[in-house]
Amino acid sequence: MPLIVPALMAGNVAVLKHATNVPRSADLLAEVLAEAGVPAGVFDVLHIDNEQAAGVIRDPRVAAVTLTGSELAGRSVAGNAGQQLKKCVMELGGSDAFVVPEDADLDKAVAGAVASRFGNTGQTCIAAKRFIVVEPIADEFTRRFVAAAAKLRLGDPADEATTLAPMARQDLRDKLHQQVQASLGRGARALLGCEPDASHAGYPASILDAVAPGMPAYEEELFGPVASILRVKDEAEAVRVANDTTFGLGGSVWTADAARGERVARQLQVGAAFVNAIVRSDVRLPFGGTKRSGFGRELAEHGIHEFMNIKSIYVA
Question: Which pTM was predicted?
Fold first, then answer.
């Protein structure tokens, strides 16, 4: 919807190629738009596989392409669009930093950490994934974070008592566990969880400490309920570590000093930086990333302009 509505508002028609595992969600979206009054033919769903998508991109009737998905999918779609010299917007993965200096309100920071890392079972591009904490308060923050995350209950999402649902697919759960195991093998420490649930695609709320360069938990996106604790000596090192990633989608800073928060936020190499709040999308704000998190912007006026030709007319 963040992609479709701006395109339609700019006067375009659109077709959606959904992820192969969610055809019903795509159909429901089409039904919602039809009920809202979108005329027939202005928006349609294409029930095709990934290989057929390249042919759609090549079709001369397609003027621009946009994708929300993985870096791998982004490379493929952007490559096909580039070969056809067609504009594209890529909203890809992220490994958002959650920066906690020594003056942070730890109650608020921990509550934000749990909400940002474990919401939607951690399967969110803008979820906080790397928790960069200065040494003076690292032990206390970590203790509180572990205690709060340990209260999450993994189970059936239809059960009202469940506070952490299974992951979308078992293969995604297995990949996440491989990343965790590789990080542990290179020196990370498991403070919570880090073992898959054998009965379904579930993975418990998990926290890794002593995360360092060379580990998947440092270098890669962990797209699931696993948090990485990175301890730093001061603000300057926190900024350096926050930017020491190939991703650049979002980041947050938690501090009692608003001016300090804005100063740090301005140094983060990301598309969206939040102070004392978790990163989220808002229709009033442009949304998108830098580096391997993609390019172009969704939402707000910037998102509408992505689907327009900016044309100059000069009359003497």
Answer: 0.94
